[in-house]
Amino acid sequence: MASQGESFGQLDVDLQIGRRQFIPHEPIPLSIQLTNRAGRELLLHGDSRKSWLNVVISDQRGNPVAPYKPMAFQAAKVPVGRAVAKQIDLNSLFPLHSFGKYTVYTVVTLPTGEAFQSPRKTFDITRGRTVYEQRVGLGGKARDYRLISFAPGRTSYLYFQAELVDERRVVLTYPIGELLQNKAPEATVDRAGKLNVLYLGAPDRYVHVLIDSTGKVVKRTIYKRGPSGDPRLTAFANGEVKVAGGMVFDPDAQKARKAKIRKISERPSLLFD
């Protein structure tokens, strides 16, 4: 097998991972870049027995992580002297739910049988902090809704996660937005089974997110402090949930106002004889 540095002018294979740390069940995007050095167009394809592209993952002990099923990727063309990229989600291919460090590399096999290996990349599956959890019955099935605080770097994010209780299976995990840690997020489920989330996204900006029963964000509204104080979630006896206090913040309207003020200030002074 030829490594990236021993590709004999045929094919260079490189990998990029968006960041180094992830929480269990969230998408792990991997970008595979293929550069054609062969002097001719390369058609990459496999057969029913073997894929032209294989992704290999091992855990921190060096044990291989088996994929959910044998890999099968569609054929790809790489023009002469050009680079193409393929994006895949590692979490959809492998059971990457245990905490620890993982190593990943890819192997591309040409129809001639020559194989080219990418450099190895590492990433960590680490723990976030659950700041809210609520069990909800929808359509006769119980689901656990969670909000998870996670800081893969200097910035903290608020994640939404949904798990089917009977199947013990997490079906959704994704970031809602940036989170400031100096105030705990608020959350409650309304009578329609929608999750209302209110969190501090900037020093003077609160974000209200409405997540429907499918786990999709259907509404996002920004608030700022109002005459009655900071915005807060209020649940009524009929199961309705609203944001009380605060004022709706429209960033487009604010930009328009600033632009109008600037244009006025840029007008030349009137000259009098």
UniProtKB/TrEMBL annotation:
<protein>
    <submittedName>
        <fullName>Uncharacterized protein</fullName>
    </submittedName>
</protein>
